[in-house]
Amino acid sequence: SVVLFTFAIATMTATWWGVRRRAGQAAVTALPAGYFIGGSGAASGTSVFDGLLPKSEKDKSELRRFLNLAGYYGSLTPVIFQLIRIVLAFCFGMLGGFLFGMFYPDMPFFVAIVVAMVMALLGFRLPRSIVAFQRDGVCEEHRQGFPDFLDLLVICIEAGIGIESAIERVGSDLGRSFPSLSRNLGFMSLE
Asked: Best label site of 16, 93, 125, 185, fewest CB within 10 Å?
């Protein structure tokens, strides 16, 4: 079962890479700088890793928003997240098929395939569940820190400090107690 699962994944990956390579050769004659790592190629949408991201702009935006709410910022964050999902799905599927074959050698082959597929699905869904759990923690931190933010902001404004300076000051004061809220206040003060 492990060999069949590995062969299926290898075939799918080889086909995917072949299609991406042919499409890249037809569309681009000279590769831009940073094509493989996400430099100018990622900014212009011609990165090798674009195949990992959702196709529609709406889905890309939802994925980026989901990761931002959990505290993951950066231009390559969605690509890294999708890579982690794929690698974990592959590893969990392989491990599940291998362990099932070791502990239950007398079971039919299709049962091992089903176990490997269920484990692959679990590996694919696990990173999203972890990020959702972290997102809930960040939202709870913001909910708990917002009253302190408002109190400190009112005190700073009553003392005669301007709104921009007050937000920067409050953000730095809340840094130890509510680091995510402080980081977001820093982003707000930069805008």
From this structure: 16
